Description:
This protein is of the alpha/beta class. The protein contains 17 helices and 27 strands. The protein folds into four domains: 11-154 and 226-387, TIM Barrel; 158-220, no CATH class; 400-603, Rossmann fold; 616-676, Golgi alpha-mannosidase II (Immunoglobulin-like, Sandwich). Strands 10, 11, 12, 13, 14, 15, 16, 17, 18, 19 and 20 form an eleven-stranded mixed β-sheet that branches. It is globular, with a radius of gyration of 26 Å.
Amino acid sequence: xxxxxxxxxxxxxxxxxxxxxxxxxxxxxxxxxxxxxxxxxxxxxxxxxxxxxxxxxxxxxxxxxxxxxxxxxxxxxxxxxxxxxxxxxxxxxxxxxxxxxxxxxxxxxxxxxxxxxxxxxxxxxxxxxxxxxxxxxxxxxxxxxxxxxxxxxxxxxxxxxxxxxxxxxxxxxxxxxxxxxxxxxxxxxxxxxxxxxxxxxxxxxxxxxxxxxxxxxxxxxxxxxxxxxxxxxxxxxxxxxxxxxxxxxxxxxxxxxxxxxxxxxxxxxxxxxxxxxxxxxxxxxxxxxxxxxxxxxxxxxxxxxxxxxxxxxxxxxxxxxxxxxxxxxxxxxxxxxxxxxxxxxxxxxxxxxxxxxxxxxxxxxxxxxxxxxxxxxxxxxxxxxxxxxxxxxxxxxxxxxxxxxxxxxxxxxxxxxxxxxxxxxxxxxxxxxxxxxxxxxxxxxxxxxxxxxxxxxxxxxxxxxxxxxxxxxxxxxxxxxxxxxxxxxxxxxxxxxxxxxxxxxxxxxxxxxxxxxxxxxxxxxxxxxxxxxxxxxxxxxxxxxxxxxxxxxxxxxxxxxxxxxxxxxxxxxxxxxxxxxxxxxxxxxxxxxxxxxxxxxxxxxxxxxxxxxxxxxxxxxxxxxxxxxxxxxxxxxxxxxxxxxxxxxxxxxxxxxxxxxxxxxxxxxxxxxxxxx
Length: 677
């Protein structure tokens, strides 16, 4: 089972008619028609509505909502209504609410407030999912099931402590193995009974917040456990759905690069990935592209859904910038370019009250069709209708892989003795940006991914080496590929214990270097790095982290220009088999990262698409029938003109383009060029 079967890219979003009287529904559907909205997500937060008391289930209103959507010809993404538990449940079973990191038992309120280890919560949420599915499983308009909503909210209660201990028993088998993994001879931490183990929190191993822990192994395992505890609630609801709906695909909406949950652990259990895209500002195009590629990589390249995006503003930040004219359309097509097979909004109509009443919506409080936001939404809806199913199911033919690893993210940011200023996302984004800038398609994949099909594998901050990843990276270069890794890589095993060997541990043979020392400084310290490869030479800045690298078999490509290690290697390249392994030992600025990556790409004759045109993004999707569609997305506030390097037809306008033609792409404009021979 993969994605829902649809004739075109679904367009619409989160719709909550239970908040409105009947006359508003009538107005909504007239406006949905005007905007070509064909899909609604229903019932996400309807638990209290459907189950107002422990033994009472009332589908009267939801039946009317579903019946109206069907009568209006809409597809339905049907939620299990378990996005937030009702007040009566918290009153009857106080243990259902979370205990937070500081040890406080929450009372009823907000959302993300359910203990993932609570048997009562799991039983009742699964039962609600069972009843929702049983009621609507036979409805052909239901094209997908939406479980929960934006899972999150770690818990540290006694139920979670007991669940953690059981999880540890299954993982380690014995206290001896656990004590070894956690290095508990340090600070008299040896455990002699499973019941002695406490969840790592502000009351136990942590100080100054979740990223400061005395025992990284304990905290790392608790984050793994919490990811899987929340997953168990998802799989319980999915199993309940499957009792009456064996074929309709099931998903839940992820939150992109969300640190608390390892989405790679969840991916096998979803029929298709979906996520909520809420960029923090107007200049997040690279961050969004990286996250789209990460979501696509969760299911081995299968298209995903954008389950939520705002048409205008959010309501969850200190400041909530408005999407400038054209940005919503541009960013919607960017999602499609990177593999989205659905574009849905939160919210379809603005709520009257509570914390999201000023969150952007397709339809504002005034219910008007002549607002700028509504006109732009309608424009995208019309374009999707014209596009039809032309790119549905299309895949990305990437020859470059970027490894993304939640365990490394967790470990590198909670380890003392390195640098609290080095942030995993920022480093990964810098290497991704170097590829994005030159129009290279990238698969963002887990460290467990089969790397056989890639010419280039980029592994920034691969701090933790799990399984046979080092051997598989060696295999990439042995057959002629290139591997790029960075400072702080190859430091620890899967228990977060240092390797008893020179840094970069098992990557040392591949990299052809050892790291003798390292120097972490504040952002005010800048060390210039001279990069040279043949006649190609550039000087760039480096900051935050500087490794003192001793070459073994590697050649020096970049050298430091200051401090006592001036003249020593900062960047190296090692011939390994028929390929190369690059090691970047310094926190290079973007210009340096981009210089290295262009050298890597040049060796493999990987196509660079319009590398000299700033902020012109390109991506290719290949349809099931073999057609190639080139997306051109202009992220600039002014038009750009390029010379066509291939012939084709723009699927949005019908314009025919011939190789050599001048092609103008409007400010924040897009083209979808179906290539022709």
